[in-house]
Amino acid sequence: MTPQTDGPTAEAALTALPAEHRTRLMALAREAAFPGATRIFEEGGEADRFWVIRSGTVALDVHVPGRGQAVVETIGRGALLGWSWLCPPRRWHLGAETRGPVRAWEFDAAAVRGLCSERPELGLALVTVVAETIGDRLRATRTRLLDLYGPPGSPGNGTGP
Amino acid sequence: MTLAPLPYRVVDRRDETHDTVTLVLEPAGEALSPFAPGQFAMLYAFGVGEVPVSVSRTPDARRLTHTVRAVGAVTRALCGLRTGAWVGVRGPFGTCWDLAAARGHDLLVIAGGIGLAPLRPLIDAVLADAREYGRLNVLAGARSPRELLYQDEFPAWGRPFGAATVDRPDDDWTGRVGVVTTLLGEARFTPADTTAFVCGPEVMMRVTARDLLHRGVRPDRVQVSLERNMRCATGHCGHCQLGPLLLCRDGPVVGYDRAEPLLTVREL
Ligand SMILES: Cc1cc2nc3c(=O)[nH]c(=O)nc-3n(C[C@H](O)[C@H](O)[C@H](O)COP(=O)(O)OP(=O)(O)OC[C@H]3O[C@@H](n4cnc5c(N)ncnc54)[C@H](O)[C@@H]3O)c2cc1C
Ligand code: FES
Predict the structure, then answer these.
(1) Which atom of ligand 2 is nearest to the CA of B240?
(2) Which alpha helices (H) appear in chain A, and where do they start and end?
(3) Which residue among B67, B125, B180, B252 sits deepest, i.e. has the most Cβ atoms within 10 Å of its Cβ?
(4) What positions does the domain FAD-binding FR-type occupy (chain B) (predicted)?
(5) Which of B51, B116, B240, B253 to mutate to test the pocket of ligand 1 (most atoms within 8 A of CB)?
């Protein structure tokens, strides 16, 4: 991961790409703006786009019968929103909803996949970046499963610092 | 430092969460020497026992403020104390957060659960002397919103960056969800010029320190607060030993360059 010098840039998820690839990819980006409480995508829907968040926060959720949407993670500026578009079945495995206004770069997944097959080097670089995001989220999920704030052996509500 | 507990009276108490209480203590006569942020006292609940508890604010040289989470017999007794009750106090013990080493640096203050308590006097000290430091980032994680401490103080800490995140949101929580390290992505700091202060359960500190190192913060500039069961707190009984360290004397605050090899071995 690239060290950040001043907080994340708006395209932090893409800064690991060589400049030339980034320029080509950004040529496919269009600006998107969502007001608060917008459902960007639904679990099970077709993953035909993805976004890099420029400002604001997006909550990722799963539908829990009887409880509605349960938020499992929030992501913010510089993060990649959506990776289910990369490999089949290309269906969202979570839902996404904005928490307040969000600005993002939006990418058409088919166009990006097209660019990747035209330029395999760019494809490899992009897949590496996406894999890193998936890796980060997997690590975060596993860490949460460890129950970070309640060490083993402690009673249900955790122990000292 | 005295070896026998001095009598202190509870002059104020505040429920922080469903199981955590902040007590303000005032000496009945002689006072202990002033505590530095990161140091701890041995608090004796009469007839129950004695436990180490960090200072969670240092309002003046005489009074002591502690935030205690009820997890067992002694901490439950301490949390149950009412205004006017007596406590025996020994201290100050242990090492403190090395703020002098952080001058001119960006600061990351990263807390898990009740780990925010020992970090609060450090945040107070930084805010009181803000020009000496770079950007302050306070990142707090808790299991659920009802376990998040000092929520009313966050607005004051949130400049330029402060955020809290929980693992398990409830219906009213509109803040971040996820492990505390995910907040690092949005914090504002220059890794090569950053000092980080980390306090929480050991696994949380390990995960956080690893992430900080990965982002380019130097291991000797990551300070963690380590805990072991304590008895004497004076370096004699050996109860608090972690490898070559006696944590009541050489800790609780230790640089991650020293702590890492001790935290990553399976058995000592
Ligand atoms: C340097 C230091 C500073 C501390 N600061 C604070 C603080 O500011 N606020 C606070 O609420 N707690 C703090 N603690 C933790 C506190 O000392 C323990 O929660 C307390 O000793 C538990 O005692 P008990 O009799 O209530 O529980 P016990 O019945 O002894 O134990 C209940 C549970 O707590 C665990 N436990 C016991 N002692 C410790 C310990 N020393 N560290 C970690 N887990 C322990 C046990 O494994 C058990 O799961 C600190 C500990 C240390 C070593
Ligand atoms: S508690 Fe006795 S040596 Fe540390």
Answers:
(1) 4
(2) 19-26, 109-118, 120-145
(3) B180
(4) 3-99
(5) B51
Task: Tell which residue, A78, A16, A125, A113, has the closest CA to residue B183.
Answer: A78
Nearest to A101 by CA among A39, A57, A61: A57
| CB B67 near ligand 1, within 6 Å | yes
Please give the C-alpha separations between residue B135 and each of B20, B45, B127, B159, B209, in angstroms, as whole numbers.
30, 40, 11, 9, 19
Give the tens place of pLDDT for each residue, A1-27: 334 445 566 567 788 889 999 999 999
With residue A108 as reference, give the H or E element that holds it.
strand A95-108
- Taking any CB pair shorter than 8 Å as contact, residues of chain A touching chain B are 1, 3-8, 12, 57, 59, 70-79, 99, 140, 143-144, 146-151, 154-155, 157-161
Query: How far apart are the CA of B39 and the centre of ligand 2, in A?
Result: 14
Task: Tell me how crowded residue A30 is: count the other CB atoms within 10 A of its CB.
Answer: 10
What span, in angstroms and rounded, lies between the C-alpha atoms of B251 and B96?
8
Q: By the 8 A CB rule, do A79 and A90 touch?
A: no
Does the interface ipTM go beyond 0.90?
A: no
DSSP label of B208: H
**Backbone dihedral angles phi then psi of residue B236, each to the nearest 5 degrees:** -110, -35
What CA–CA distance (Å, rounded) separates B85 from B87? 7
Placement of tokens 């097209």 in the chain: A114
In order of start, what are the domains of chain B with their CATH numbers?
Answer: 2-93 (2.40.30.10), 100-263 (3.40.50.80)
Distance (Å) of CA A137 to CA A134, B19, B178: 5, 31, 9
Range B147-156 average pLDDT? 92
